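Lay summary. Proteins are chains of building blocks that fold into shapes, and those shapes determine what they do. In this project we predict the shape from the chain. Here is one chain we studied, written as its sequence of building blocks.
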Amino acid sequence: MKKLLFLPIVLCVTVILSSCSVLKSSQKFTTQTIKDTVHTVEASSNINELLESARKDYVNALYQQKLGFKVETLNYFESALSTVNKLSYYPEIEENTTYVELENSIVEDYQKYIESLDELPENASISAFDEWMNKKIPDVIAEEDSTKPIPVEKGVTVVVGDFPLEVNRYVEQYIEYFTGKGRHYIESWLSRSGKYFPLMAKIFEEEKVPQQLIFLSMPESGLSPYARSWAKAVGMWQFVKGTARLYDLSVSFNIDERRDPEKATRAAAKHLRDLYYSLGDWYLAVASYNSGEGRVRKAMRRSGSSDFWAIRPYLPRETRNYIPQYIAVTLIASQPEKYGFTNIQYEKPHEFTIYKINEAIDLGVLAKCAGISVESLREMNPELTQSITPADYDGGYPLRIPTKSFDAFVENLKNIPDDAKILYTSHTVKHGEKLSGIAAKYDVSITQLADLNNISTRSKLQPGTELRIPVSKINENDIAINTDILPAVEEEIKSLDENPSYKLELTNNVDQDKFTKMYQAMAGDSIKFIQPEGKSPVAYTVKSKDNLIDIADLFNVRVTDIRNWNNLPYTSTIKVGQVLNLYVPNEKLEYFSSLDKMSEAEKNNLIFVNSGDTWVEHRIRNGESLSSIANRYGVSTSQIKEWNNLKSNRLVRGKKLMIYSGDTKRIASSSKNLNSTSRITKYKVKRGDSIGEIAEKFGVSTAQLRNWNKLTSNKIIAGSILSVHGKDNAKSIGDNTSRKESNVLSYTIKPNDTIGEIAEMFKVTIADIKQWNNLSSNKLIAGKSLSIYSDIDVSKVSKSKTASINKNNSKETSSKSSSTFHKIKEGESLWTIAKKYQVHVSDLIEWNKLKDERVKIGQSIKIQN
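And here is the predicted shape, written in a compact code that computers can read:
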């Protein structure tokens, strides 16, 4: 009978999967921590495996829904979304149509299921609760579906902090729910508040924001650092990537600072303060935090009022109920005993000490050294998205370690062999790379590499995929540490307390204009900042289509730096013609000064170019149009259509467009000249060749090869003939010699160097540098060397650069060798320094006449160039 029942269900699921529609709702939905899911999915670097894991949980959710099991259905949906969250950190994952379609399908069906429930199971996650709450609770008030404003009878004003809260019928319905059927949510949030509220209160006080706003984090995320909404907002304060960037929260494959309680709370305090300064009312500021300032101002214009209760009918449904829900939660959580919440077991704040990690070390090794579980170490460092510490974190990654076991941790870490620390490293697959080549590069077997990443030895690797590479032959369980010196801290980390660690001070005496006066005084003050050492100011005039994020990328600075240097509040936007002062390294003053006179296309070339020469390869994203893409690159829609042989304006998401990012006025003539005057070399494709390798062989871009040979993809067939346009001395068919005619120079990357500046200095293109050095992005690492083919007169390069340029093709080398000195920082060893400067430990010992590998903090180490 079960088999007969399962067959139509599978068929139903197949139909649903094949007809997934685009996500229509941006309602807030928060995925939970590991506690809230039925099971966890082991981290894997293979996208397809994770996609399949999410799909299986999705199918199980639909099956359990069909059988009528509510808890199981919710748990499988949550588990599927937890895996989707893991996938969200992979490079360019938003351009993966399979990922986007699967995520949209899961969210859409989950949302429909939540809406169908009359009541949630008691153990439902906060994510399910949040969606259900916005759909069900407000239905008791008839005018919710009316756009006609209905006067709200004046409620009772209650003061519990720095601004008064109004209690009316909207608020009362939430108080009734949270003290009744939904009381287990308040109990859970109050328990978690013990861990986070002391830190939040301290930060809000420092940022001069009302402390009662820390209670906003409860309905926002349930105080979960791992929460992720359907609108892709992340963390306890639910930041989307764009807003996070404005407040200097970094999001990358290894790090998501939106999940860091301290950094995200400070960003939230600043964001709320800026919204209040712009709108002049805390209710409006909180409403804007939920739906955006633009929607709130639109509601103010339509209602003709600046009072939240008057503009409420004109706001999105979720935002209408956001303020009443916040007020109810604040009243209850600030006085739990008054509302019947007693015997709450509060989690304790973490007591930790920072240890700087300069390598990519497996978290299992670090947890073992600290005498705690990997789960506890992750909980103390929630911003880590992978199972290892980031390798290239500036100054070393600040890992939080329990204070009581810190000394033992340091001692244990010192005694672990270097080859056992880094159990795994991460490798980003570049275009044309194969599993066999990567295995050979890291001296591991193909089978071992495939098994570790849950892929076949014959799998075709996609560019941008992250692979885990075993770099140690030692198993984590074989690592011996001194357990005698480890204190018992695991139980203490997880222990609970009957007494809350934070209590909001209640008051009945509030100056309602207090913050208005304070912020006006702050805005009126001329902000003094210390000019960065070794930097000089350059002026940049804001052009049409400029924005602060692009300007920050252009000048290699942070958005916050630009705001501070120019006293720009977050509530203001830059204007065309406005002159900004930016501080740049003294040795780069001439280069950065030239940016002000660059054309839009030239600037876009520096910011956006991701493939060869002056051609950009742009993958069409959801919601983009020809006009929006043309505006981004400073070209016309007709040009894009001509370059890509488009007959209409219709675009297909995921497809690629070729866009010329140079001087578009000269593209026609330059193309003709290229075809008519340059020599065309014929190259016969061999078995095993890739288009990337052929492009590098002839010193051209993959985009040019596709354009010259009318290829629609990077796929090439052995035995076919490719046309290569170039100079006269290109080689004949099958010749394996690279066509690079200039002198090869070795340039050592300096701190703060940008690829655009180096390209400008040597009069080459960014794409050339990336091809010559197999770079997959514009990111540079100080201390590494670049090979550059250029005939530029070295004497014309600034003296500060000349020392690091050597002609490799010269048969004679100078007998003189320059050297630099490195000052030992905390956590560094000879091994990490050798790795940084790409030398051997034995060299460092010889150059510095050391007796052994021991070094001291502050000691200067000589590095021979």
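What the prediction tells us: The mean pLDDT is 75.
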